[in-house]
Design goal:
By secondary structure, the chain is an all-alpha fold. It has 2 helices and no strands. It is rod-shaped, with a radius of gyration of 27 Å. The N and C termini lie far apart (about 60 Å). The model has no long low-confidence stretch (mean pLDDT about 90).
Length: about 90
């Protein structure tokens, strides 16, 4: 009977240790996900600002319609490259 109770106690100790490890890994993963999301948001804002700056620069020389077309074509090309590279 002592060996059975020892096995049960060892099982619960192992379960507790695995629970602690799982909690630590979950917190680490959550922190990483939040960092990636915040970084993605900053990258998105940076892309918007860069597009706006490029629009203003092209608009100064060629007008607003040409500037919008150029920016739209650049974004379409980048989006196409990303979609097709992800498709492979």
């Amino acid at each position: 009977m002592k060996s059975l109770s020892g096995i049960v106690l060892n099982f619960f100790e192992l379960l507790e240790a695995e629970g602690r490890l799982f909690r630590e890994k979950t917190i680490s993963t959550g922190t990483g996900i939040v960092s990636v999301l915040i970084g993605g948001l900053f990258l998105f804002v940076a892309c918007l600002l860069a597009a706006f700056a490029a629009f203003l620069w092209i608009e100064y020389y060629y007008g607003s319609i040409v500037a919008l077309l150029v920016i739209a074509l650049v974004f379409a090309a980048i989006g196409s490259l990303l979609v097709f590279s992800g498709k492979r």
